[in-house]
Amino acid sequence: MKLVIAATGASGAIYLQRLLAQIDCAAHEVHLVMSAPAKEVAKQELDDFKVPSNVSQHSENDMNVPFVSGSARFDAMVIVPCSMATLGRIASGSSDSALLRAADVFLKERRKLILVPRETPWNLIHARNVVTLLEAGAIVLPAIPSFYSRPGSVTAVVDTVVWRILDQIGLPSAHTYRWGEKSVSTKRKKN
Q1: pLDDT digit string (tens) for 107-120?
Q2: What is the pLDDT of residues 172-186, one digit of tens each?
Q3: Residue 22: enclosing H or E segment and its boundaries?
Q4: What is the structure's pLDDT at 183?
Q5: Are strands 56-58 and 29-34 parallel, antiparallel or unpaired?
Q6: Could you tell me if 112 and 138 are in contact, meaning their C-beta atoms sit under 8 angstroms apart?
């Protein structure tokens, strides 16, 4: 599978870190684009942000990357975290960076584009931008964790969102907790 993973300046770099950790980057072609604010947020939020060695990293301003052309075949693009500013630019059709151009290409070519906003609350402009993107074919997957698996750590909470992203990409994780398929441990049932 050929994937573009991108990140913008919203809080939530841990979602990006956990997604990269759970994709087999040796088995799949993964391209990473991080905006300058995303890099700053990763430094602020994570002690040791790591990009797997098999991931191809690209500048947000490099318009010569293959995934900015509709003729290049890619399977999915995920923007995690996706700031509301980026979401709005994509909704308006702006494509003045490699990240925005790639999102535009994925929409126009009817390829899977998954946006993971973490910001809350939304205003009416945010909501209208989300509707515009849904109508254009994007998947908007807010970083809203689930708790029925009774996660016991911050990483486990984050993984409940990452598992949903992986399902949408088509790379489900064997570790995903699925309602009704696994029982919660006896220790957790007592709490």
Answers
A1: 999 999 999 999 99
A2: 888 898 888 765 543
A3: helix 13-22
A4: 54
A5: parallel
A6: no
| Separation of alpha carbons 17 and 41, rounded Å | 12
Average pLDDT over residues 135-152: 96
pTM of structure: 0.93
Name the one residue in this structure whose structure tokens are 């994570």: 46
Burial 73-99 (b: 16+ CB within 10 A, else e): ebbbbbbbbbbbebbbbbbeeebebbb
CA distance 89 to 105: 14
Report domain extents, the chain.
Answer: 2-190
CB 7 within 8 A of CB 116: no
Tens digits of residue pLDDT in 25-73: 999 999 999 999 999 999 999 989 999 999 999 999 999 999 999 999 9
Q: How far is CA 179 from CA 13, 148, 160, 183, in A?
A: 27, 8, 12, 9
Give the whole-angstrom CA distance, residue 120 versus residue 135: 21
DSSP 132-181: HHHHHT-EE-------TT---SHHHHHHHHHHHHHHHHT---TT---TTT
The dihedral through the CA atoms of 103, 104, 105, 111 has a sign that is: positive
CATH class of this structure's domain 2-190: alpha beta
